[in-house]
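1st attempt posting a full record on here, be nice pls
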Amino acid sequence: MLSIDLDVTRSVRACMASCLGDATATFDRAALERVHARLREAVWYSPKDRRALRAICDEHPQRFTRWLYECERDGRYTGLVMVWPAGHATPIHDHAGLWGIEMVLQGALSVEDYELGHDGALRHVATTVLEEGQSCAFLGTQGHAHRCTNLSARRAAVTLHVYGGLLDGYRNFDVGRGGRYVPVPTRAHVDGRIGAMRAS
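the predicted structure (as tokens):
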């Protein structure tokens, strides 16, 4: 565990406690948009946070790393900070049916969205560029997948993620015979924890 407590993760915890406290049983598009809007207003990425996460970037300059900062007691959400080395791209992957919000704290990401058809084919839907302070949200339906790429060839990017449950496994989509994508069950690796895990 890294003995740092970030201003940005504290602000996310406080916001999520408020959002989920008045959430309805069903988490639909409107509920996701409300949480996304409130997080955009609440998140504060301070100079102290930037210095602390710079140390992680410097320690693992060539490796994509995932750091858990919250695993809410009732399993309603999980929070991660991810550090992206220069030029790193994920495989196309889903989110095990969970909704998610992803925010860029440093750098810029390209997010390519895909739709998985009933025949198993992946269709590219859109590409969005997220710059520092910008974010995206998705409901995590079974047909949703995406790939993210750090757009800088020289500098690390840092992102903050909130997922609607415990994301301990998901599917990567690898290219198989005939150019068709094959789903590969993948365990969600966590490199460590930031701060103390609290019961919300």
